[in-house]
Amino acid sequence: MKAELISIGDELLIGQTVNTNASWLGKECSQRGVRIVQVTTISDDKQLILDAVKQAFERADLVLVTGGLGPTKDDITKHTLCEFFNTSLEMHIPTLQQIEQFFSQRNRPMLDVNIRQAELPKDCEILTNRVGTAAGMWFDYKGKVLISMPGVPYEMKGIMQEEVFPRLDSRYQLKSLFHKTILTQGMGESFLAESIAEWEDEVRDAGLSLAYLPAPGMVKLRLTSFEGKQREAEIDAYFAVLKDRYPSLVFGEGEETLPEVIGKILLQKNQTIGTVESCTGGGLAASFVANAGASAYFSGSLLTYTNTLKQQIGKVSEEKLKEFGAVSSEIAEEMAQNGREILGVDMSVSTTGVLGPDGGTPENPVGTVWIGVATKDRTLSKRFQYGDNRERNSQMAILSALNLARCELLELIFEKK
Amino acid sequence: MKAELISIGDELLIGQTVNTNASWLGKECSQRGVRIVQVTTISDDKQLILDAVKQAFERADLVLVTGGLGPTKDDITKHTLCEFFNTSLEMHIPTLQQIEQFFSQRNRPMLDVNIRQAELPKDCEILTNRVGTAAGMWFDYKGKVLISMPGVPYEMKGIMQEEVFPRLDSRYQLKSLFHKTILTQGMGESFLAESIAEWEDEVRDAGLSLAYLPAPGMVKLRLTSFEGKQREAEIDAYFAVLKDRYPSLVFGEGEETLPEVIGKILLQKNQTIGTVESCTGGGLAASFVANAGASAYFSGSLLTYTNTLKQQIGKVSEEKLKEFGAVSSEIAEEMAQNGREILGVDMSVSTTGVLGPDGGTPENPVGTVWIGVATKDRTLSKRFQYGDNRERNSQMAILSALNLARCELLELIFEKK
């Protein structure tokens, strides 16, 4: 089943509001096998709405419309739809009673504009809005369907979940799309594509669809089946093959994050972690603390941004700092090693680098970062070379450090490219 | 000038990615007098792209296209635009050199797919992408313009800011909107509106438009003149009045951030700062380090997430921890005070709280945060009460701590509501 979404509202076009309705509907619909093929965002303008509805009906079986149902003057969706469907408004008594109840519950007087919200098109099914005053509307039209809903996200979501999805499920035999996503870190999109070309051919030959979704410092791979959840086991098997071939690259699935994955491993091993940071400035630590319950495995950090503090609280030797410089394998390893002792943790991760825009040298150009990891068994360090954007370099360094720590915890050989 | 945006990508339609490009472009364009009248989101499908471009040209003078320029098989925008504009691809040497440099800087070999990213349409102007390998394209077409850019937000933003807006400014006479923004921290939107009601009347009477732009932990106030830059001095004067009346609330202008503002004050005073963090987990330190040149005033931090580390490296007394608990005025102040000594800094800022979702008590419910500030003259602490969203609470605590530090540096009385 093909659907289109028409989002109405100036606030979306001037960037005051992000269109999260579109992403919510996209996710919920595709999980139920309704494929949204286009999203059109327009302002509260009669002709634009009429054109958009006409064109959407040409391409889709289901047209979802959000916005423009409020009580103010600029909300014209209801009148415009009456024109399109050649019908008129009449007072809808159950909706009026519901609006009356809504205001009396809140001890607020009901205004004329609110009463007029109960005037609804004759030729449509009314979809109850339990959390607001703008009802939804279901129009049947030449074997297709248009649904109009308010733009307020929680009102739209309520109507979709309580009124629309149950009706769609009972009236249509939907084809069932099913997605699953696997997460990789350590290779850019192009390299990953080349490395896994064979695997990609296998999944495509099996009739599954593969998408590369690059995000800063990582690439998500999404497999889609057009025959629904029944192919989940098959998708899982393909993911298992990928994990098996590239264990250092594949770190998780779905909505997992690297700090969460590390947290789970640490909890299993009954171990703790801490960080000694220079260039990442606390960002690596903050990525752990972002997770509720992090105190079970994350203890704390030393943030030694200056060379003085590297010596004073990080106990790095002055001689080594002079000999090798702060951005070096030796200092990264000493920071990590000393951190284990000072913080009393099982694993300590260190970062030291030049994030830019200034401070680069021929030996250590902007974007150079050394990451160290120390456990009771060994200490190692790796050099990374990123670009010249400070913020992005920081994100990349944090993710590289996390994946290096994960590989060390799992005794994997760390690959990067 | 009317513009339309065509966003290409399945990830937007199935809700895996929220279309923040649309809101960013909406905001930036409208500030420059370019009105986005429609946003159309479609998948990487040749016919859909051709139809969308054709229809957009019927309605708008400027068509912005994002997405579908990556190196993988599903990225087809470039070829489709060649078909639409009846042109073909050729190797663009400057882009090829830039891609080569991009990979050599990162010590990564260049693949065939990357080389092919330098094959670009003959009949267009190439827009340099300084942070990625997919160049932008500017097509002139029947007196109108189409611009194609990658969908990765920071690449698209870079191309718009460095290549597109300067060209638009020089080639078109855009309507002259002029905006200036002043930044406040410490009061919610409703309270702020009530507090500054009189000032708001004054600016509205002067024919300026005022917008409240709430962001987590702060409220931006934007004044807009419809007669261009000529009213800048007047806007500055209104801002000066606001700063004078509410010095603890107003911390900066435009794109300034609180850590930057504090950095400037510290540099002037030739002083340094450090942090001792518990609940903010390094995020407060990271907010300083995000700024290039932070090492001139920011030294480092202790991140004492567990009570053990509060004692061992933060030198907080076991007795006080037992008597008052970790989330208390006494511990916040002791953390800040000891931090000054241990880190050897002029000012030390501490955080200790319960960010949630668990861990609340009747005395310190979720959202309670104590912030301490120590200077050579005095130590003080303040209690803050936020909501139940962990991520938001962390952001709020960081901003409150920064503004408290700023007020203390400037010897202002700190207000909050």
Straight-line distance between termini of chain A: 41 Å
Unreliable stretches of chain A, pLDDT < 50, 5 or more residues?
none
Give the helix tally of chain A.
16
Give the DSSP E fraction of chain A (strand runs of 2 or more residues).
Answer: 15-25%
Radius of gyration of chain A: 28 Å
Which architecture of the largest domain in chain A per CATH? 3-Layer(aba) Sandwich
CATH superfamily of the largest domain in chain A: MoaB/Mog-like domain
Oligomer: homodimer
CATH hierarchy class name of the largest domain in chain A: Alpha Beta
Mean residue pLDDT of chain A: 93
Strand order of the largest sheet of chain A: 2-1-3-8-7-6
Strands of chain A, count:
17
Report the principal-axis shape of chain A.
elongated
Q: Please give the share of residues in helix of chain A.
A: 40-55%
Note the main sheet of chain A.
Answer: 6 strands, mixed
